[in-house]
């Protein structure tokens, strides 16, 4: 929804003759937001598949030592994918947050709140996806992979609140 809102704001601004000096930026934002929206759709499908693999692995038999070894290996592979999928969504959410901030440069005060909503959606997606990464980490045995994911999460989570605060301040200024 957030990428859709950024694209909407850019499209409306693009249609305004009064904003002709911003049309080039609007075109860039439309293209980027549309690509991001498609990537979010792909991320959803990837996450669904990854979760299905975990469910399938958990249903494998474990009556013998050999079955337990196979099940454990499959489950660990599935959990790694189940963590990687929302980690990719964390990146997309961070991109969306940056795109919403950039879209404020369209200087369309009438639509600034839509960009604030896009930023809030991006932050919610980032936070929710990070939670899903971490819950999978809880069951993963590959400490190196968990550490690698955690570093990426910390990087993405570090800058996001400041970006959101800047966006909210600019939205507040635009509507005051």
Characterise the protein shown here:
By secondary structure, this protein is mostly helical. It has a single domain, classed as Four Helix Bundle (Hemerythrin (Met), subunit A), CATH 1.20.120.680. The chain is built from 5 helices and no strands. It has helices at 2-15, 23-58, 65-103, 112-137, 143-175. Helix 1 (2-15) packs antiparallel against helix 4 and helix 3 (65-103) packs parallel to helix 5. It is elongated, with a radius of gyration of 20 Å.
Give a quick summary of the entry.
By secondary structure, the protein is mainly alpha-helical. It has helices at residues 2-15, 23-58, 65-103, 112-137, 143-175.
Shape verdict: elongated
CATH class: Mainly Alpha
Structural category is mainly alpha
Tally the structural domains.
Answer: 1
Radius of gyration: 20 Å
Percent helix, as a range, is over 70%
Subunit organisation of the chains: single chain
Number of strands: 0
Tell me the number of helical segments per DSSP (H or I, 4 or more residues long). 5
What's the layout of helices and strands?
Blueprint: H1 2-15, H2 23-58, H3 65-103, H4 112-137, H5 143-175
Helix pairs in contact: 1-2, 1-3, 1-4, 2-3, 3-4, 3-5, 4-5
Sum up the structure in keywords:
176 residues, Four Helix Bundle (Hemerythrin (Met), subunit A), elongated
